[in-house]
Amino acid sequence: MKTNAPEVNVSLRAKSFWRTDTRALVGAVVLGVAFVLVQQIAHHIDAVVWPPLVIIGGITWATFTGLITLIFRQPAGIIMGEIQALIAVASGLSPLAVFFIPANGLGSLAYSLAAQKLSMEKWSHHFIAQCLANISGNICVGAGLYVLLKLPLNAVLVSSAVTAAVGIIGATILTKMISDSLRRAGLI
Amino acid sequence: MALFAGYKNRGTRIDRLDPRTKVSWLILMVILALVNTNYGVLVLLPVVVLLSSRAAGIPLRTFTHPVLVLALAALQLFIIQLLFCREGYPIAALGPLEIYSGAVPLALTAALRLSVIVLAGMQFMLWTAPSDLVLMLVKARIPYRFAMLAGLAMRFLPLMERELAGILESQSSRGVTMRTPFQKITALLPVTMPFLYRSFRRAGETALAMELRGFGRYPERTFLYDLKISPWEKFSVILMSGGCFLVIWLNKF
Amino acid sequence: MSEKLVDAFIKSLIFAGQSMPALSGIELVIETGEFVVISGPVASGKTALCHCLTGAVPHFFPAALQGRVEIDGIDLAEAALTQIAGTVGYMVQDPQNQLFSATVSEDIAFGPGNMCLERKEVRNRVDEALDFVGLRGFEDRTPETLSGGEAQRAVLAGVIAMKPRLLVLDQPAAEMDPPGRRDIYKRMAMLSRTGNCSIVLVTDHPEELRDYGTRFIFMQDGSIVSDSTFPPELPVAAADRELLGIRRCSVSGEVAASLEKCSFFYNGTQEGCREVSLELRMGEMAALVGLNGSGKTTLAKHFNGLVAPQQGVVRVLGRELNKTSVWDIRREVGFLFQNPDYQIFANSVEEEAAFALKIRKIPPDRIMERVHHVLRVTGLSEYRTWHPQRLSRGQRQLLALASVLAPEPGIIIADEPTSGLNRGSAEHIMQLLSQLAGEGRAVLLVTHDLGLAARYASRIVGMFRHRICIDTPVEQLDAHLDGFRSIGLDFANSRDCKDIAEGGAVIGAVCGI
Fold first, then answer.
1. B residues 60-89 near C, CB within 8 Å?
2. Are B6 and B71 contained in the same domain?
3. Is C31 helix (H, G, I), strand (E, B) or coil?
């Protein structure tokens, strides 16, 4: 008699940068679509509460980017981000989503680099990964706003710094909480 | 209202065009918007996109929502430029705030550029069948396991949109109030978590079903249809590509 | 000549995060051409066994499997899932998650295309599969426009187009109407006899397969308890047997909620309800029945303000809805949705049941008291620390009911609460709703299941084309059977009306609507 899995460990996969199995690829697509729809709600709240800033949108952006990259790794993180950005542009949901096309990919890659080096079991690991993702993603969006839309540099800096700061704090908490919850739920 | 109307075969000549022709048109529009600084051309581009969509049988009301969103974004751009722009010379002062002459042209350029990119992107998705998109990516030598994901996204978008609406209704029935901004923020978790659980469950079930139907078994696969590009379409693709290079050349050198 | 196709020995199977085995002591041999029907109560291990027979365990679901499963000589633990494709076909319960292409024909071609068959052969297989499942004419339909039954047929076509040696089907026809189910079962029986293929089919209605199945397996607590040819008396789980004693509630008096000539149009034009009037009384359980799209759910949503009629008056507990805060009304009206997963979000069963009380700012000690009570009533006490996503679908529906009941609403609206549940779970939910009505609450049940409606409700309200056509106490149901039949609802055969196309000129003409 053969025993193929004597001990069950939920995080069955070895820690690696890449994961190209079907579940990761399909997960990237499904979560990319979920990301667009949740961002729609987040942008609506931002527009009502603090129109010039992207606070809730920034937190949900960083949470989805971190969560999916953490669980499905690469290229799923990039695929999820690009699907979100392209659907957001093509549906007219957010005109600024044009800048998410490079930002989502870059943010996810930066997160992956941290997630590969760290065990991601401590709060500090999530914090470091989110710092990298938020800073690189917001630099990308900021550059787009400055170069292509010719927005004033000080306005771009303030907006990007605020979005990155809330994104780092909010998403660090949410990514860890949600990934723990998904693990408890047996869904990952 | 659905977030995105999606592709529908309207039986027009444009519908039957090869996706490579359509993507060339999209690239031409985007490059014209980003590189060109002539206001006449920038104003004309969204009009061209809307008229060509109409010619493809897409009702103009499909663009109502994005146009409204673009109008709001334009308003924000104007406010930001009026507050922060220091290009040109002061033309007015409101107390300590000075408004500079460069503010309006910069905001107008940015708003028009965004409009063209968004409308042309939307047009591409509205007149390109997801299956054509997949075949185009396969032709571009992207492995089919990745190319087919584009079609999958379009397949799940309406389904998941309905699901999210159901979750919002369900939580609202339980007493989750979403009147004030604070309530909306606190409602995010009860709305997002069921949606995430459902999405992870869906991802697992779908991936399982796909693998058991041989997805990824071989490096290549057979598609039910193939793309066919006519000689005059090839010619138009070459013309559009030439147009792109010309615009970049004229504006940058 | 028959040959051994499946050879399975499962000493034990334990899913990740669980301590109890989902399967134990399973020894199963299936020969070519057999049509094996598997049934059993909730959590008896039917789906887990299907997972093992298809390689989903261990390749997809993290679990400790002690034993071995061989299909056609292939050890499933050794072969990748994509290598098993073509040998094993698997159809799980939710059809919409198993349709991945833009159109039905592309979806059916998905599998043969992945096997790199010639395009001509792919097209042949698409045609054959379309004919097999009766979906000719649906080739260019997009999956989201299909009804539940049509989507199941489309998935089945996709699986059959792979021409597998073993077909494993978990509730493949649950969303089809009875004639549709019979038709599909008949075709499957022919396929198993002539197509060099074996079928394993899980169902909660094994009696429907008596004429087609060649072998019947009954499972309980993760083990096979009987394995034979179809017996004259099908076994019933002890838990289900207890549920067969139905107590129908009696009607008391007071009006709990009412609709007066209410009309509602989606986006101002698409008809939802037209001039509907309905009184719901305390202590009664009214069943709202009708074909798909007849306006049942729209009507039900009036009672808690999810829908605000453009004409007419809604009163809940004496208060007019448009003159009262909708949030106050929702405290009094509990709404149980068809899909429990649309509301469950907490990290434990207990937290989930307490959520509605917390947002109403009830004191913590009172919350604990209420939560313990509703979990006891719904039979979930022993799972209170579990993550809700670890529960079965039926248990999650019970949890949704528990969280609806926790704030003690006077009125309960249940929209298709038994949809997608097996018989045991469905009867359990209905027993609870009936009991609640018996305690003096008003219950409005929206359902496709005419059998359940007739057995549990005290009153049946029939809708057709957005209007109420018939409203009768259940005692007088016999006198209205023709009327119900004329709006497409055949109580005489306890017919499930889920997958019957809406309306139709004939029915419309008969009703004069």
1. none
2. yes
3. strand
Window 151-170 of B, Cβ < 8 Å to C: 151-152, 154-155, 158-159, 163, 166-167, 169-170
Alpha-carbon distance C217 to C46, whole Å? Answer: 10
Size of interface A-B (CB pairs under 8 A): 169
User: Helix (H, G, I), strand (E, B), or coil: what is residue C268?
Assistant: coil
Name the closest residue on chain A to residue C78, using Cα atoms: A4
Residue to substitute from C127, C343, C413, interface B, most B β-carbons within 10 A:
C343
Complex-level ipTM beyond the 0.85 threshold:
yes
Q: Nearest CA of chain A to the CA of B119: how many Å?
A: 7
- Strand duo C459-464 + C467-473: pairing: antiparallel
Of C242, C266, C293, which residue is a domain's last?
C242
Residue range B36-91, pLDDT digits in tens: 888 899 999 999 999 999 999 999 999 998 899 899 889 988 888 888 888 889 88
Q: A149: closest CA among B116, C192, C210?
A: B116
Are C308 and C401 found together in one domain?
yes
Contacts of residue C157, defined as CB under 8 A and 6 or more positions apart, other chains included, come to: C104, C107, C108, C129, C130, C132, C133, C135
Does residue B101 surpass a pLDDT of 70? yes
Q: Which chains does chain B touch, 3 or more C-beta pairs < 8 A?
A: A, C
Residue C250's pLDDT is: 56
Instruction: Please count the structural domains in chain C.
Output: 2
Average pLDDT over residues C216-220: 93
The verdict on B9 and B119 lying in the same domain is: yes
Amino acid B107 reads: A
**Dihedral angle over CA of C226, C231, C237, C243, nearest 10:** 180
Residues on chain A touching B1 (C-beta within 8 angstroms): none
C297 occurs within a structural domain: yes
Mean pLDDT within A55-74 = 95
What DSSP designation does C391 have?
S
Same domain? B136 vs B70: yes
Cis amide prior to B231 (ω within 30 degrees): no
Asked if residue C499 and residue C433 are part of one domain, the reply reads yes
In-domain check, residue B223: no
Alpha carbon of A167: minimum distance to chain C alpha carbons (Å) = 23
The answer to whether A13 faces chain C, any CB pair under 8 Å, is no
Task: Report CB contact under 8 Å: B114, A56.
Answer: no
Which residue range forms the structural domain that includes residue B252?
A: 1-142+229-253
- Give me the residues of C, 53-112, that contact A with CB < 8 A: 58, 60, 62-68, 75, 77
What residue numbers bound the domain in which C95 lies? Answer: 4-242
Over residues B97-101, the mean pLDDT reads 86
Q: Among positive and negative, which fits the CA dihedral C369, C370, C376, C379?
A: negative
Cα gap A123→A68, rounded to integer Å: 17
Banded model confidence at residue C236, pLDDT cuts 50, 70, 90: low
The domain total for chain B is 2
